[in-house]
Amino acid sequence: MRQILTAGRYFREKFGENVYKIPVSMPGFTCPNIDGTVAKGGCVYCENESFSPNLRQKTSKKFYLNPNLDDNPLLSMQKEQIDIQYQKTRVKLKKKFKAKKFLIYFQSFTNTYAPYETLKTLYGYALGKEDVTGLSIGTRTDCVDERVLSYLSDLSKTKEIWMEYGIQSFFDETMTATNRGHSVENVIETIKKTKSYGLKICGHLIFGLPGESEEMMLKSVKKAVDLGLDSLKIHPLYVVKNTALAVDYIKGRFTPIEEDKYISVLIKALKIIPKNVIIQRVTAGIGNETLLAPKWCYCKHKQMKKIREELEKEGILY
């Protein structure tokens, strides 16, 4: 039975105990694909409030950051939100799992798309929280410069630092169809540059994107492996309200991937991923009223049960 190297197994081996990720969402952060810098409207599947309950608190006014701003009037609020969100989840994890070590995960929107001094302040502030052993920073490959990579590289000498890039696909036609706002070439260049700074990379891939075949999905996995990514997150494309994809779904222009098909492609993907690559996610979903389709993405517990059963049939333990 082949045992997948999960994030839990990786952290237990490295730190001698479990390390838990705590997601935080920063008020005032946005994306160049939303503010019109590279495109308008965001990616067709993206409605960030669906992915992060913290954003629903509406803690910020209608002010958004970008790297060219000289001032950040939301900095105090952002630090306060790190305090609130981190402490709330930390207490739950300590109570439920007796957790002692944590990574703060800057999750929603593009978490390098802000003034450099803001990023330094927030990353440093997060690392200073009690029991925090590192950071995981969710961002786009077109929103990272060498100054940020150099700073994070210095931090990585004493802390666990991960860059999480939303790759989604290695096909330019898919980038166009999803209104991604950058090219595959940019993805490849940024991954190579990030690795040159010695930083760990987790790449996000989506199965079931518009127009993609099984062959394309597996080619994206193979490309991620060839580029030497340290970790992967894989999940199906699901449709949430208030997105361009929702309009296509309602009008019959998009059909979500079926559960059996997704699991079949996932198994083939895991078989071509080397044993030393950490698999941080094999599915995803959203258990609230924002989900339109596919309905099998509503309950993650049921998804994982079926995925584990099918993997075990193939001699794979997740």
Tag the structure with descriptive keywords.
single chain, 318 residues, alpha/beta, Transcription Regulator spoIIAA, two-stranded parallel ribbon, 11 strands, globular
Secondary structure layout plus pairing:
Elements (H helix, E strand, L loop, with lengths): L1 E2 L3 H9 L3 E6 L23 H4 L23 H23 L3 E6 L9 H12 L4 E8 L6 H10 L4 E9 L3 H6 L6 H13 L3 E8 L6 H13 L4 E6 L2 E2 L3 H7 L8 H14 L5 E4 L9 E3 L6 H14 L2 E2 L1
Helix pairs in contact: 3-4, 8-10
How would you summarize this macromolecular structure in one to three sentences?
The protein is of the alpha/beta class and 318 residues long. 39% of the residues lie in helices and 18% in strands.
Plain-language structure description:
About 3% of the residues have low confidence. It contains 11 helices and 11 strands. Helix 3 runs parallel beside helix 4 and helix 8 runs parallel beside helix 10. It starts with a strand and ends with a strand. Helix 5 links the parallel strand 4 and strand 5. Strands 2-3-4-5-6-7-9 form a 7-stranded parallel β-sheet, sandwiched between helices. The chain has a two-stranded parallel sheet with strand order 1-11. The chain has one domain: Transcription Regulator spoIIAA (2-Layer Sandwich), CATH 3.30.750. The protein is an alpha/beta fold. The chain is globular, with a radius of gyration of 19 Å.
